[in-house]
Design a protein that fits this description.
This protein is mainly beta. The chain has one domain (22-184): Lipid/polyisoprenoid-binding, YceI-like (Lipocalin). It is built from two helices and eleven strands. Strands 1, 2, 3, 4, 5, 6, 7, 8, 9, 10 and 11 form an eleven-stranded antiparallel beta sheet that branches. It is elongated and about 50 Å long.
C-alpha cells in the first residue's frame, strides 16, 4: 500500500493551509512489518501480514495530541505454507470474506521516557473490538524513525479459531503481535 499522510494534513493542504509539523509522518511499508506468533501444540508458529497501512500524527514533544490509525489487510496473512495459508481466510479463522480488515485506532499516547511510549486504543478484528495497550520504542537513524513493540492478545476474544480450533491445547489462546514500523517525518527524540 502507498504511504499516506494523516487525514487532517490532507484537509489542511486542500484548504491551502500549511499542515503542522506533527502531521507529516509517512509509513515506509517496504521497511516495516507486522508479525504474530502463536503456539500450536506448544510449538511457536510465526506469521505476518504482507499488507497494512497507517495514518499517523505524532510529535514526541506532544504525545497526548497524537493520533494513530492502522488498517491491516487480513487477507494478506501468511504462515509461510500453502496449506495453512489456505485455512486462514476461512470463517473459523479470519473469515476474510466478511472481515477483510483489522483496524486499530488510538485513544491516548503517553510518553514513558525519551524513547518509550504507551499507546492505548481499540483493536478490531473479525467484527470484535477490544481495548489494547501497546508499548512502543522509538529509535532514529537519520531521517527514518523505527517504532518497535509487541503486545499479547487473546485470539478467542476475537473469535479467531472457532469450533474445534477453540481447544487451547491445540492452538494457544494467547498470540503475540510484534511490529517494526519505519516512519519518516518524526521530530528529534
Amino acid at each position: 500500500m502507498k504511504p499516506h499522510l494523516f487525514w487532517p494534513a490532507v484537509a489542511l493542504a486542500a484548504a491551502g493551509v500549511a499542515a503542522p509539523a506533527w502531521a507529516q509522518l509517512l509509513l515506509l511499508p517496504a521497511q516495516s512489518e507486522i508479525a504474530f506468533v502463536s503456539k500450536q501444540m506448544g510449538v511457536p508458529v510465526q506469521g505476518h501480514f504482507r499488507r497494512f497501512d497507517a495514518q499517523i500524527a505524532f510529535n514526541p514533544a506532544q504525545p497526548a495530541a497524537s493520533r494513530i490509525a492502522f488498517t491491516v489487510d487480513v487477507t494478506s496473512a501468511t504462515l509461510g505454507a500453502r496449506e495453512t495459508d489456505a485455512e486462514l481466510p476461512k470463517p473459523v479463522w479470519f473469515h476474510t470474506a466478511q472481515f477483510p480488515q483489522a483496524t486499530f485506532q488510538s485513544s491516548a499516547v503517553k510518553k514513558l521516557s525519551a524513547h518509550q511510549f504507551e499507546v492505548a486504543g481499540q483493536l478490531r478484528i473479525k467484527g470484535v473490538s477490544s481495548p489494547v495497550m501497546v508499548p512502543v520504542t522509538l529509535t532514529q537513524n537519520g531521517a527514518v524513525t523505527t517504532a518497535t513493540g509487541a503486545f499479547p492478545l487473546k485470539r478467542l476474544a476475537f473469535r479467531i479459531g472457532e469450533a474445534e480450533w477453540s481447544d487451547t491445547s491445540m492452538v494457544a489462546d494467547e498470540v503475540q503481535v510484534k511490529f517494526k514500523l519505519a516512519l519518516t517525518g518524526v521530530g528529534q527524540l
